Amino acid sequence: MKAEIVNIGDELLIGQVVNTNAAWLGEQLSLAGITVIMTVTIPDSRDAILEALAEAEKRSDLVLITGGLGPTKDDVTKLTLCDYFNTKLVFHQASYENVEKRFHARGLKVKETNRRQAEIPESCTPIMNHNGTAPGMWFEKGSTIYVSLPGVPYELQPMVSDFILPRLRESFKLPVILKKTILTQGIGESWIAETISEWEDSLPGNIKLAYLPQPGLVRIRLTVVGEDKEEAVKELENRVEELIALLPDYFFGYDDETLEEIIGRLLNEEGKTLGTAESCTGGYIAHLITSIPGSSAYFKGSVVAYSNEVKEDILKVRKETLIKYGAVSKETVTEMASGIRNHFRTDYSIAVSGIAGPEGGTEEKPVGTTCIAIASPEKVVARRFLFGDHRGRNIRIAALTALNMLRKQLLNHLIT
Amino acid sequence: MKAEIVNIGDELLIGQVVNTNAAWLGEQLSLAGITVIMTVTIPDSRDAILEALAEAEKRSDLVLITGGLGPTKDDVTKLTLCDYFNTKLVFHQASYENVEKRFHARGLKVKETNRRQAEIPESCTPIMNHNGTAPGMWFEKGSTIYVSLPGVPYELQPMVSDFILPRLRESFKLPVILKKTILTQGIGESWIAETISEWEDSLPGNIKLAYLPQPGLVRIRLTVVGEDKEEAVKELENRVEELIALLPDYFFGYDDETLEEIIGRLLNEEGKTLGTAESCTGGYIAHLITSIPGSSAYFKGSVVAYSNEVKEDILKVRKETLIKYGAVSKETVTEMASGIRNHFRTDYSIAVSGIAGPEGGTEEKPVGTTCIAIASPEKVVARRFLFGDHRGRNIRIAALTALNMLRKQLLNHLIT
Known about the structure:
In chain A, the strands form 4 sheets. The first copy, chain A, has a 6-stranded mixed β-sheet with strand order 2-1-3-8-7-6, sandwiched between helices. A 5-stranded mixed β-sheet of chain A has the order 14-13-15-16-17, with helices on both faces. Chain A has helices at about 10-15, 20-30, 45-60, 75-85, 95-105, 110-115, 155-170, 190-195, 195-200, 230-245, 260-270, 285-290, 310-315, 320-325, 330-345, 390-415, and strands at about 1-10, 35-40, 60-65, 90, 120, 125, 135-140, 145-150, 175-185, 205-215, 215-225, 250-255, 275-280, 300-305, 350-355, 370-375, 380-385. The two termini of chain A are about 50 Å apart. Chain A is an alpha/beta fold. The first copy, chain A, is elongated and about 85 Å long. The model of chain A has no long low-confidence stretch (mean pLDDT about 95). Chains A and B meet through helix 2, strand 2, helix 8, strand 10 and helix 12 of A and helix 1, helix 2, strand 2, helix 12 and strand 14 of B.
């Protein structure tokens, strides 16, 4: 089954509103086994709507139309649908009662403009809108199904989940489509592509791979299309296992998981605590950790040491170390990590010092040079990296790299 | 001039990524006086791309194509463009040198897959990508201009602003469209609307007002459309002044300015230093401040005190204060602000303590309760606020409110 999404609204075209409906609908349809072949955004204009509907009929079995159903004059969708489906507006009692109920609940009287929202094209099946006044409309023309929905996300979403998808499942045998995303840290897209190239080439046609890179992370999504759910689940599981086995040092989680969540879970499980000492990341690691609800159970705090003075006074980095090796060195971050661990009396600590840029680079230590240390009850591990030349991304990459180093330490500790 | 945006990418259709490029491009083109008549999202498929390009040619003068230019096998855009424009890939030395430079800067060798990114269709004008390895491509066919761009927003945006829009302006007479955005903090959208309602109603038709609310901020954008540039500049300046005069306590800056930038500038001008003591904001204020290049000149660091232990040990908050008034109180943040200012020997300091949620609220101090103190050489000012019930937004709003309080202190100090 092929679907197309038609979003109507000037506000989308001029970029006043980001089109989140397209993404949400795309995900829901994909998960139901319906292939979204296209999304189109057009203005609130009769001609544009008529053309988009006619084009869609040529290539799609299902057309989801959003927007343009408001009570104001610039919303022309409903009248245009009447033209396209050669029908006329009729008063719909149940929709009117819905409008009335919503207005009365707020102590308001129904206005003429709102009364018009209860008029629907005669040939459609109305879809009740429990979160607004504009009903949805289901049309069939030839072998194509058209559904018109309001553009407000919290009105549209329950109409899709509670009415449209169940009705489609009843009427059509939809294929099973499953997906899983593998998260990696510490390896670039092209290095992954090279590492898994042979395996990727050997994948059968019903399995798709997509790379979704972000600063400091690459997400790899596997999609399986099948007919039998159990078989598809098994096939996806096997492929995911194979893929992880090819990237054992870089894989850290699935789907929407974050490193800060995973670390929080591991620390909670162990009943251990954490502190951070940050120079170039400037508090960003602490921010990621404390963005997780309940992080106060394991996170004691951080010292952002943006000056050498603070590194010496509070973190007890020795002056000799700073002079001999510099603030950005494995020696300094090792002392920072020990310093914060002792000072805050935590089990683990992270310390980072680097040159985020754009200024401050030298030949020996160019912009992007970053040292990270992880202190655990047993030892301190320090590493030196060279990231890129963009300040914001360097901060992000340094933070994710540090969190991943800590994750590995925590896992090692659990194993041994 | 009519434009169309063609976004290529399976990840957009299945909703794994929200299409923010369409909104950003729509806004830039609209502001340049170019009408966006349609945006289309299609899969990484040769046939779909060919069809979309042919359809676009029928109705648009300008077609902006995004995505599908990565080094991996699922990216088919470049080869398909060769077919459509009846040309072939050729090696482009300048693009290769860009790839090489980016790899060498990170101490990496260029791989075959990356080398291929420097191959471009022979008939196009290449557009340098200063933030990535895939060059942009400018084609002309009949009276239609096609531009293919990488899908990564921070790569695409400067290519549009620095190359494509200037080149379009050179070739076409576009109307004069000017905009200026006024930034406010500490007042909600509906309060602003009420305050400026009369003035807003009196605006002439060629001036548009848009509210762009974000957690903790409301941006108000004024757009003037005209034919004469000088006149439009003057009109915009006058309206901006009028608007600011209506919101004197809340206005803090223009356009893309941030509070952290403004504070950095003020501290630099005064030659003064800053430290922060953060509880509920968890390092986010320090992160904002240190996201500004050169912040090490005025920012000495932060103590993220996520436990009372750290508040007492390092910030020297008295145990009696914590017991009598609680960690979230004006008394505690006052001592935190003094503590960090003394400890780090800075001129100014910010201290924040609050209940970010979702847990931890009480009847007396519900989720969202936040206390903020600013210490300056003369005094400490503390205030108590009640924000919302969403953890991430509470952190953001608390940080912006604190930065704005510091900004006011710095300005007062400059005046007196």
